[in-house]
Amino acid sequence: MTxxxxxxxxxxxxxEPMQMVRLIIPVExxxxxxxxxxxxxxxxFKDLNAEKSPFxxxxxxxxxxxxxxxxxxxxxxxxxxxxxxxxxxxxPMGTNVNLDELEVKLGEYEAELLExxxxxxxxxxxxxELLEYKLVLEKASQVFYSAEHSxxxxxxxxxxxxxxGSIDSPLLLEQEMSTEPSKQVKLGFVSGxxxxxxxLAFERILFRSTRGxxxxxxxxxxEPVVDPVSGDKVEKNVFVVFxxxxxxxxxxxxxxxxFGANRYPFPDDIGKQYQMITEVSGKLSExxxxxxxxxxxxxxxxQSIGYEFEQWNLLVKKEKIIYHTLNMLSFDVTxxxxxxxxxxxxxxxxxxxxxxxxxxxxxNSQVGAIFQVLHTKDSPPTYFRTNKFTSAFQEIxxxxxxxxxxxxxxxxxxxxxxxxxxxxxxxxxGHGISLFLATLYFILREKKLSNQKLGDIMEMxxxxxxxxxxxxxxxxxxxxxYNEFFSVPFELFGRSAYDCRDSTCREASTVGLIKVRHTYPxxxxxxxxxxxxxxxxLNSLKMKMSILLGIAxxxxxxxxxxxxxxxxQNDLNVWYQFVPQMIFLNSLFGYLSLLIIIKWCTGSQAxxxxxxxxxxxxxxxxxxxxxxxxxxxxxxIVLLLAALxxxxxxxxxxxxxxxxxxxxxxxxxxYARLDSTDDxxxxxxxxxxxxxxxxxEFSEVLVHQLIHTIEFVLGAVSNTASYLxxxxxxxxxxxxxxxxYEKVLxxxxxxxxxxxxxxxxxxxxxxxxGVLLVMETLSAFLHALRLHWxxxxxxxxxxxxxxxxxxxFASIGDDEx
Length: 817
Description:
single chain; alpha+beta; five-stranded antiparallel beta sheet; four-stranded antiparallel beta sheet; 23 helices; extended
């Protein structure tokens, strides 16, 4: 884009200059103009109809139409998901779909699909009912067949008993033969299916309601059956209930309805039973064919919908957001035009004008749109143009607070300082390489992964892939300085400067070492690792290094406050905030940093704790053996007095000068140009303490300045101590890595057993990945985040702005209704 001349070079130090613009657009070209502005994505509209409800706005009807079409599209998506039809990822670009035509087409498709669903549901229900009926015919016939066989067997037993000449048999035979047919008891029966989980309760209720005057039989259906009513697969039993009398029959029917049991008729005659089974089987095959043909037709319809679904969905979403934006414009009936206001970057002026002119030509409008720049005292939004590399670092800053308009942006320095401070706590080039390889996977497959739905944690890691990459690269750098590869030192840059005095100390690493070569050229000498003095040496090195880094970053923050004050033309903050803060911080902790560097350079044995403590308690006492350079005592007294003077310098002058400026302004001794185009004039008003046109609350300003002064003085001490977390976490990471290496890997190696060695390697890998590469990474990340938010950004960053949110179609595809 830079080559095309449309975009100036990216500058992240201060946000883009913004301007308030009024657009006057004819009604006939308004829709097309807003659409083109959405494609451009560089204009943030202001709602000029905030007092109106959504239903009172001009384009409420069009939004309702778009909402109805969106509902139909959601219905189509649900149907495609159920059927397993995927929507096409690409759409035919050559076809321009009209919204009115699309509305008619969607209505036709919905009506056709609803009719298909209703017919399919009816056919499927009939099919399931016939399937159940067939099961009842098959299982109930087994009940009757077994009953018939048992009756024949009993009859044979009776005949055998009669043949033996029982005394009672003639009387019984005569009694049976004399019974009239009209007086014989006729049993009725009800057959059907009931859910297996309800079968016991069903049988119990039948017995109790009829007082045991029924005969109940159940047969288990092996496979689950699709229930015709609910459509779910349910395990069922076929039941047959025999009864006598109409009252019992009515009770049984009511109980069947209460338990959701499906009843089916069953013929007494065996011949009719086989005939019914044959008829039901034929109907089932016919229904199956009909249902399959209907499902195929429905799938073809959904396939044709899915081919253009994404195009329709995008069009409806675009139209809906266009009409939402049009509702933010004021509608002038007499002039037949729409008036809109909003913010845009100054570099986008020509682009927006070109877009408006193109909309006028494309819509055949006789009147062109008017682009008018307005002068306002409102605070503009903050807009930083970022790319995929810098956006994640900017998000780290914005999570604390969005920068005020054209305030110095910490995101520029965060790109370097954040991964570096992380690496100071995570210094191991073996772990850094592992983290880099994991990040490299995200970077090489970013096109594919960006289109996939990842989990919450993976989505977060993928979004910050370039932050992780920088953290890994800086960790490799600091790991080379610490000379640690999974806690193991290597002579990468030459041999160690130390060696044994003779052969007797070959196995000893604590005594007998002498310096025989030049100092190790880069990083910590590998001979330090494993010695008794390793921990005191590294503690001293990392602690002093943490203080130096902390003082340097806090000084950078105060220097940025100077550039903010100069940019906003606020001389009070330069002389009564920046200058005393620099004097106070460097008189104490800047002096400590100087002593650390001098001690490193000279190899002095001076106790810096003693020097700093007695600088306050006894500044006039002789330093003795703790003196590092000539004139140190006099310099300490001067610096101490300068620090004491800096505190009232920060506290008192600024409130009185603000009061004086306020009085002069209201006496007419200071004026502002009416045609001033200074975008930062509102900043001046804020920094001058103007709380209103009539009142100046001096007590509030004084208390605010007192709080600010106390916060800085105490913060200078606490923030410096807070940077010692760099030393603490670096030490913890190094010691954990050493423990895992020595107590797991080396211990397993010492057993001379392959099985134990494999277990040791697995445990070492799991501990390294789980603790050092995951938990320690998260811990160091959070501590680096705190150092930037609290210790660094608090020195200059107000963060009370708001983001530039332009009307754009760029992210419309990610939004789900």
